[in-house]
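INFO  loader      accepted 1 record
INFO  loader      residues=114
INFO  predictor   begin
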Amino acid sequence: MVELAIRICRSALTNLTKIVVSFCKNNVVMVILIGINILYCNIMMSFLQRNKNRCKLCTERFSKHEELVQHAKKVHRQPVTRCRECGMEFLHEEDRLHHVQEEKERKIDRRRHR
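INFO  predictor   done
INFO  writer      dumping tokens
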């Protein structure tokens, strides 16, 4: 489904770019194309965000990640994994590993900027 949305957005972006290029001069075209690319990225991000905190078993939506984890634990008896550093819970080990890597990078950045 995501791939279909990406293809639709790309074809719309391509068609719009052709129209803009045919009607504008070069220096104006760059500004408009940048705006179109930003719009395209915003469309894709909003589409992808829709499924961010959605239960894959019953498709119920939640406003926070923590609510989704609690739902999965209580309703579906799904096991969770926990971050050793901060205690945040995750439904999938790969999400926990991604979180640990991001936290490690943040610590390194904080040390560099002191």
